[in-house]
């Protein structure tokens, strides 16, 4: 079964075709990083315009690269939230028009569920497992019970870890996106140079706002020629230690046999190394190109959701309001 995936939740336009939920035939992504650099973050109006400019051409290219036509596609899966609503609606409108024109099944996908599914791509991984989902917008610990049912039992109480990486990167004067550039800078630093605080919150929850404030105050107290690489390394050490400690603890408490890490922060090499060294059960992570937002994970999720009924009216409501309580009518989610 071949599914066309469409992802426009933030600042990347991505189109993919995935067969049977695991085999990526093609995944094309256009990043908007250069467009948002001068703003130090994503400017929604520019993101929307950029999606509109490239999405039709990217769909044509993806079909051409795969040597397939839309008639040979079995269904269309599209991200419907969470994310920037005006960006999401670009992808949803395009997907709905294609589904109607070519009489294809339209499948709405929760973006976070998509990140979980990124670990199935070119992999034999099967649930159940405990998942750490760490990205620019979310930090969660999720009990994945089967392919379509999961429970979020740990979450961030304020900022997501990816957002914290980006904001500290900006504080250090690094270009957008701050997180990946902070990781590069940290390679030349001493991770024990600065002692930074760790939030005291409930076992599975996260909090990074206090850490951000502590780093800001520290920078304000340091001389102008302080070692930025040392501070970057110390910050990264603090955050990755917290993530690793909590996911390993959750896996132990839930008697899990596998740990999965997904989301943009799962590309962080320090996090990957620590998990592989410290976990006494297998750890699974997506390939680096599938850590950030991509349509292949959305197509994979669409395959897993193919037998769950979704009416177009509900998808319309949810696309316009990703916080809608109708989420639980689309996906078997408990929290």
Overview of the structural elements:
The longest helix has 26 residues, at 228-253. Strand 9, helix 9 (269-278) and strand 10 (283-284) form a beta-alpha-beta unit. The protein has two domains: 2-118 and 291-334, ATPase, nucleotide binding domain (Nucleotidyltransferase, domain 5); 127-286, Nucleotidyltransferase, domain 5, CATH 3.30.420.40. The strands form two sheets. The protein has a six-stranded mixed sheet. A five-stranded mixed sheet has the order 3-2-1-4-5, sandwiched between helices. Helices cover 43% and strands 19% of the residues. The chain is of the alpha/beta class and 335 residues long. Mean pLDDT is 91; it is low at 322-335. The chain has helices at residues 33-36, 44-66, 85-102, 111-117, 161-171, 178-186, 209-221, 228-253, 269-278, 295-304, 312-320, 327-330; strands spanning 2-7, 12-19, 23-31, 75-81, 105-110, 129-134, 139-144, 149-155, 259-262, 283-284, 332-334.
Name of the level-1 CATH class of the largest domain? Alpha Beta
Summarize the amount of helix as a percent range. Answer: 40-55%
Give the overall form. globular
Radius of gyration: 20 Å
Q: What is the architecture of the largest domain at the second tier of CATH?
A: 2-Layer Sandwich
In the residues, how many domains can be counted? 2
- Ends apart, CA distance between termini: 31 Å
Count the strands? 11
Order of helices and strands: EEEHHEHEHEEEHHHHEHEHHHE
Low-pLDDT runs = 322-335
Percentage of residues in strands: 15-25%
CATH superfamily of the largest domain: ATPase, nucleotide binding domain
* Average pLDDT score: 91
Total helical elements: 12
Indicate the CATH topology of the largest domain. Nucleotidyltransferase, domain 5
- State the major sheet: 6 strands, mixed
Broad structural category: alpha/beta
Biggest sheet, strands in spatial order? 10-9-6-7-8-11
């Amino acid at each position: 079964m071949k599914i066309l995936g469409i992802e426009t939740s933030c600042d990347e336009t991505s189109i993919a075709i995935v067969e049977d939920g695991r085999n990526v035939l093609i995944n094309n992504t256009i990043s908007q990083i250069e467009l948002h650099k001068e703003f130090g973050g994503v400017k929604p109006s520019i993101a929307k315009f950029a999606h509109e400019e490239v999405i039709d051409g990217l769909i044509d290219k993806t079909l051409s690269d795969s040597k397939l036509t839309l008639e040979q596609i079995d269904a269309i899966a599209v991200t419907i939230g969470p994310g920037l609503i005006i960006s999401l609606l670009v992808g949803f409108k395009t997907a709905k028009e294609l589904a109607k024109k070519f009489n294809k099944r339209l499948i709405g996908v929760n973006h976070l569920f998509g990140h979980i599914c990124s670990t199935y791509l070119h992999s034999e991984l099967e649930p159940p497992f405990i998942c750490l989902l760490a990205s620019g917008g979310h930090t969660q610990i999720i009990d994945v019970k089967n392919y379509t049912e999961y429970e979020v039992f740990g979450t961030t109480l304020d900022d997501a870890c990816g957002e914290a990486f980006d904001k500290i990167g900006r504080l250090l004067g690094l270009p957008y996106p701050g997180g990946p550039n902070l990781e590069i800078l940290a390679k030349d630093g001493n991770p024990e140079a600065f002692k930074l605080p760790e939030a005291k919150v409930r076992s599975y929850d996260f909090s990074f706002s206090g850490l951000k404030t502590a780093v800001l105050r520290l920078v304000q107290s340091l001389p102008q020629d302080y070692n930025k690489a040392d501070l970057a390394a110390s910050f990264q050490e603090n955050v990755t230690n917290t993530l690793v400690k909590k996911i390993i603890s959750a896996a132990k408490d839930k008697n899990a046999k596998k740990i999965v890490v997904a989301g943009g922060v799962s590309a962080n090499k320090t996090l990957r190394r620590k998990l592989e060294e410290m976990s006494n059960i297998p750890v699974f992570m997506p390939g680096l190109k599938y850590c950030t937002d991509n349509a292949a994970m959305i197509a994979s999720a669409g395959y897993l959701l193919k037998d769950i009924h979704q009416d177009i009216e509900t998808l319309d409501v949810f696309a316009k309001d990703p916080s809608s309580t109708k989420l639980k009518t689309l996906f078997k989610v408990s929290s």
